[in-house]
Design brief:
The complex is a heterodimer of chains A (618) and B (237).
Chain A lengths: L13 H11 L7 H12 L4 H11 L3 H8 L13 E6 L2 H5 L2 H12 L5 E2 L5 E6 L11 E3 L2 E3 L4 H12 L4 H5 L8 H8 L4 E3 L12 H7 L3 H11 L11 H10 L6 E6 L8 H8 L1 H15 L3 E6 L7 H13 L16 E6 L9 H8 L23 E5 H13 L1 H5 L2 E2 L2 E2 L1 E8 L5 E6 L4 H8 L6 E4 L5 E4 L17 E5 L5 H15 L5 H18 L6 H16 L3 H5 L2 H9 L1 H5 L15 H4 L1 H7 L13
Parallel strand pairs in A: 1-3, 6-14, 7-8, 7-10, 8-9, 13-17
Antiparallel strand pairs in A: 1-4, 2-3, 4-5, 11-12, 13-14, 15-16, 15-17
Helix pairs in contact in A: 1-3, 3-4, 6-7, 10-14, 10-17, 11-12, 11-14, 14-17, 20-21, 21-22, 22-24
Chain B lengths: L3 E5 L2 E5 L5 H8 L22 E4 L2 E4 L10 E3 L3 H17 L14 H8 L17 E2 L5 E4 L8 H9 L5 E4 L6 E4 L26 E3 L20 H8 L1
Parallel strand pairs in B: 1-5
Antiparallel strand pairs in B: 1-2, 3-4, 3-5, 6-7, 7-10, 8-9
Classes of the chains: A alpha/beta (618), B alpha+beta (237).
């Protein structure tokens, strides 16, 4: 029995346990996310009393602790069940049968979404994209991933859990005997459909790192600059230039952070790299450390990928044991570098590099004011290079095979290969490593999705493309993307897709700035009006105008791209909107719905309306 | 002595190294509208009302460093329209009933709406949140219906009063300012705190008890003229 067994307040003795957790992180306020994750695991919620203890131990105010605890979706201010089931509610999962799966879970557990069973056994909730769109519907059961869910499978899962089995036992009866890698691939399929020359093909271990040690830091950076490598997370900033900025800033400490907070709905490429190429990733981070002069690194792993934690810890331990991390790497005196794994806790915004740094510092995941940029003032105020998983893997391969080898692949301005995460209405969802420059049509043919009516390129922050432009090219200059390719057939409702993505952005906005915090709610409401058939033709101009304000005034990339699902469908699927908009007649606005307007009055008066409820007299 | 100059709406502005666009503009007597920024407090860049175009890019003037030769656009019809949208969003996010609010006439949100010519019914739907009123403290009341999440009280309490009475909790549309305890009476807030003083809260959220309506409507700060006039007067003087 843990203290959290009693709902309402933690049992006596909780202070000692919380204090122990804080001590294990040296009472460092910068480790607040780790502390609160541990408190959540131990007590299954973060009670006000426990926050008070954490505040005293770390020297913060209680409100500062609460600010962190209330920001992250995986931290809870109310008691959660011993087993928390988080159903991925991404639109791809919804189209793959999530409503039936949800109903099946609700029936089997006797609770609705957002509720906890009265015995404290189970909590059921929705969570945005968990990076399993190629095997949807999927869910997290505590730290375990289950995929390809059906109502039958769901009933069997719940029956097993109710009979006392651990979530791990659902994966394999011999779970404890499996290696971390075996566990990961038993839970989640890689679905590598096409391996390219750079990342998923054969590679000599640590060949890039060996070569890097023969070069000066400046020469390493030159190799990257010459290779044409650009960031693979979506923004496409030249990687070599980023490293050079960090290297040239005078500082006592520098940091390398790997952004493994892959949260863009429909993206799951980093999941596959973390599973199958973790050594290549750490090799890339080590090369980055050598190039910029960093001794410390962080690998920020999204909370949804906690099932990969043991695998990554094992890789880090193995590399330390082999002298590939730690002091004097590969026998080079003075080349010291080590990496700490930092887990996230359910916040899409932490994929933004400033927010990711805030999160690593134990703060709410809010983007930082730019300038200064992280390369001059990042983690704890020191120059910090933040790179995506795929980018760092590319860097290691470039140092192995040379910049020219990489530069010669792809097209002008978009060199090398790219991992595409293809999911949705296609025959072969999964990962495709392809050189830049292919057309969307060619990729769809490979994936068996050529009948698509609409394709979302780059996730909701990207663009929704219609059939007549499928010949556009997948490059930075045409269809730039972090790699998500979400395929929708002619049977899907474009407005339903758009409304889902707007609700996603409303859920994931950090709330720091006005336009993103409020504006996205207004956009979501406006799209809902179209779906309900309550929109006027003027509302099309309203959507465009409001989107423009949000894009122009938002503080970070989230708000600068969140109207994209609306704007790209307005441009490419205009009829979807105009078909749902009705002009107002006789100055009476159809948008006004008297029934919903008087509903509040009905409830207050506890009776129906004489005028508007026609059956009132009956 | 200035290190360099730049321009705002073609007016030459002297600036020192490290100054933000707004700091230099304030010193030169050019007003850039703002709500979350307040002299003497850390810059936050959250309300975005100070959005300007600098070298063609929209940035928040309170956080963006001034640069030699930079051409900044401030009071253009386009930028004022963006600002009006932002102020409207703030009105619609909370429950702002000017006619019954003690802050009317001293309220920066209301004054900004007048300055930005927000004279027609707005297009946005009201979000009508249910927010609590905290009157637990003997000298101070909080009506968070009127809070615009500018965070000035948070920074004032942390950095000036060295207390930390307030903080942000929650995320997205649910992010809000809260007291460091179950209610304000259980914090170390005092009526003499800078965070509680009438210049910090721009709206009628932080209310000092027993001094309401001491200054009658009609004789209040923005009854005398537009918000920002004190800064603009520096230049005219």
């Amino acid at each position: 029995m843990t203290a959290g067994e009693t709902a309402g307040a933690p049992a006596s003795g909780y202070q000692d346990q919380v204090a122990q957790i804080c001590d294990s992180y040296d009472n460092d306020p910068h480790r607040m996310l780790d502390i609160l994750r541990d408190v959540q695991d131990r007590f299954r919620w973060i009670a006000r009393e426990t926050m008070q203890t954490v505040a005293e131990k770390t020297g913060l105010t209680q409100i500062a602790v609460e600010g962190v605890a209330s920001f992250y979706a995986f931290l809870s201010l109310a008691p959660k069940g011993r087993i928390t089931i988080r159903l991925c509610d991404d639109i791809v999962d919804q189209f793959a049968g999530l409503p039936e799966v949800t109903e099946s879970f609700e029936k089997a557990l006797g609770i609705g979404i957002g509720e906890t069973t009265s015995d404290g056994g189970f909590s059921l909730e929705y969570t945005p994209c968990i990076g399993m769109c190629d095997q949807a519907p999927a869910a997290m059961i505590n730290d375990v991933i289950v995929t390809n869910l059906t109502p039958e499978k769901t009933r069997a899962l719940v029956a097993a859990l109710k009979s006392g089995k651990r979530p791990e036992d659902l994966i394999s009866p011999d779970f404890d005997d499996l290696t971390p890698h075996q566990r990961a691939v038993t839970m989640v399929e890689n679905n590598i459909r096409h391996a390219g020359a750079v990342l998923l093909g054969p590679a000599a271990p640590d060949a890039g790192l060996k070569n890097a040690l023969d070069l000066t830091p400046s020469r390493i950076i030159k190799e990257l600059e010459d290779s044409g490598l650009r960031g693979c997370g979506g923004a496409g900033f030249p990687t070599g230039r980023k490293w050079r900025f960090a290297a040239e800033t005078e500082a006592e400490r520098r940091f390398v952070i790997c952004n493994a907070d892959e949260g863009e709905p429909g993206t799951f490429k980093d999941r596959v790299l973390l599973t199958e190429r973790p050594h290549l990733l750490i090799e890339g981070m080590t090369i980055a450390a050598r190039a910029v002069g960093a001794r410390e690194g962080l690998l920020y792993l999204r909370g949804e990928y906690i099932y990969l934690r043991d695998l990554l810890e094992e890789v880090l331990a193995d590399r330390r044991a082999r002298g590939l991390l730690g002091d004097g790497i590969m026998g080079v005196d003075g080349f010291d570098f080590d990496i700490r794994l930092q887990l996230g806790a359910g916040a899409y915004i932490c994929g933004e590099e400033g927010a990711l740094i805030s999160s690593c510092e134990g703060l709410p995941g809010e983007p930082k004011t730019r300038p200064p940029f992280p390369v001059t003032r990042g983690y704890l105020g020191f120059p910090t290079v933040v790179n995506n998983v795929e980018t760092l893997c590319h860097a290691a391969r470039i140092l192995d095979r040379g910049s020219k080898w990489f530069f010669d692949m792809g097209t002008e301005g978009s060199h090398g290969t790219k991992l595409f995460s293809v999911s949705g209405d296609c025959l072969n969802p999964g990962i495709y490593e392809l050189p830049y420059g292919l057309s969307l049509k060619e990729l769809l043919e490979m994936a068996g999705g050529e009948d698509a009516a609409a394709v979302l390129v780059g996730g909701p922050s990207g663009a929704m493309i219609a059939r007549d432009t499928f010949d556009r090219k997948l490059t930075f200059d045409d269809l730039a993307t972090g790699g998500a390719i979400t395929v929708f057939s002619k049977d899907r409702n474009v407005l339903e897709i758009v409304e889902y993505y707007m609700s996603f952005f409303v859920h994931e906005s950090c709330g720091y700035c006005t336009p993103c915090r409020v504006g996205n709610v207004l956009l979501q409401k406006a799209v809902a009006k179209f779906r309900e058939g309550l929109a006027n033709p003027e509302d099309i101009a309203y959507l465009k105008d409001l989107s423009g304000t949000i894009i122009e005034t938002s503080r970070c990339g989230l708000g600068m791209t969140s109207p994209n699902p609306i704007l790209s469908t307005l441009e490419n699927f205009p009829l979807v909107y105009s078909a749902m908009a009705k002009p107002s007649k006789d100055r009476i606005r159809d948008t006004f719905d008297i029934q919903s307007a008087i509903d509040g009055a009905r409830k207050l008066a506890k009776r129906r309306s004489y005028v508007f409820d026609r059956d009132f007299s009956q | 002595m200035s290190d360099f100059t730049f321009t705002i709406d073609e007016i030459e502005i002297p600036a020192k190294e490290g100054q933000t666009i707004m700091e230099a503009a304030d010193a030169a007597g050019v007003y850039i509208p703002r709500l979350c920024d307040h002299e003497g407090l850390r810059h936050q860049g959250g309300c975005r009302v100070c959005t300007v175009k600098a070298a063609g890019r929209s940035v928040s003037a309170c956080t963006q460093p001034a640069e030699p030769g930079l051409a900044v656009e401030n009071e253009t019809p386009h930028i004022n329209k963006l600002r009006r949208d932002l102020v409207e969003m703030l009105f619609h996010e909370g429950n702002h009933l000017c006619p019954i609010c003690e802050a009317s006439g001293n309220c920066e949100l209301q004054a900004m709406a007048y300055r930005l010519d927000m004279t027609e019914p707005t297009r946005f739907p009201y979000l009508e949140p249910c927010r609590p009123v905290d009157a637990s403290h003997p000298d101070i009341a909080l009506d968070t219906n009127r809070c615009i999440s500018c965070g000035r009280c948070i920074r004032a309490s942390q950095d000036v009063d060295q207390k930390g009475v307030f903080g942000y909790v929650g995320r997205g549309i649910h992010r809000h300012v809260a007291a460091n305890g179950p209610d304000l009476a259980h914090t170390d807030a005092e009526i003499t705190d800078f965070a509680i003083s009438d210049e910090v809260c721009p709206v009628g959220c932080i209310i000092r008890k027993r001094v309401g309506f001491v200054t009658p409507i009609g004789e209040r700060e923005f009854d005398k003229g537009l918000i920002g006039r004190k800064i603009s007067e520096k230049r005219n003087a």
